[in-house]
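Hey, I'm writing a tutorial for new members on how sequence and structure tokens pair up, and I'd like a real worked example in the thread rather than a made-up one. If someone can provide the structure for the chain below, I'll link this post from the tutorial.
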Amino acid sequence: MAEFFEENKPMGYDELIRAVQLLRWRYKFVQRFSIGKSVLGRRIPAIVIGTGAHPILYVGAHHALEYMTSMVLIKFAGELCAHIESGEKFHDKNVRAILTRQSIYIIPMLNPDGVELHLKGLSTAFGMKERLIRISGGNFDNWQANARGVDLNHNYNAGFKTLRLMEIEKGITGPAPSQFGGYRPESEPETHALCNLCRRMLFRRAYAFHSQGEEIFWKYGDRTPKISLEIARALAEASGYTVSMPEGLASHGGFKDWYINVFRKPGFTIEIGKGKNPLPISEFSNIYNKIEKMLVLGLVL
């Protein structure tokens, strides 16, 4: 299969755009578009594979340190396309036939500004340098937020007021490198663009990829469909990951929470790899190989 990026290097925004362009050039049946722009004006690319009427969603890199999720999703897109073109089964699934009945939307990097700040520093911040220095102290080694210091996975309208109080109790009262969810839900252009896409497309399933912990989160409140636990267990069996319940500041305000709460359909957070963010690039192949079967299974469950 053609390589669309260097697997031994972190994937920044420029590398992502190049990979998406190469993927589209290599496989003419791939569609691409932008769901919107980030705070700093970077387009947020989406890849569409398949022609069916029952779309599912895979989204990565809500958080800046989690760019490996972008790498996983681009590599999976390439492998998926190669199997569609060849007609060969992919982990025993006829993906060519599956993707005539449905389609998959892949958003590899929801937070391009944050990824760029972490990987390349203030030179990527354009006119927001002074503000970002105040928030970060000039150090982006542990930066998770977007360019306004908002944690995108705390910015969804699912228990938002409860989460806001929990943040304040922990001393998080304003823009920060991580865990500040903003002053209102969907205040950030990145989360607003993703929510609008979901409202427009009415995805059958939604999977948000994060790192780390090798865990699968599946539940949010009493609107969680009964089938969600069954799906989570199947995904866990395919990957060796653990079915889990979130705690503390991870228990509200996330994309998976909002998706379940609004659409009453199965939504999942999948925490790839184990260790400390950012995960070592040397572990990329092992992490990807461990979850590839799960990624394929997500198309059919």
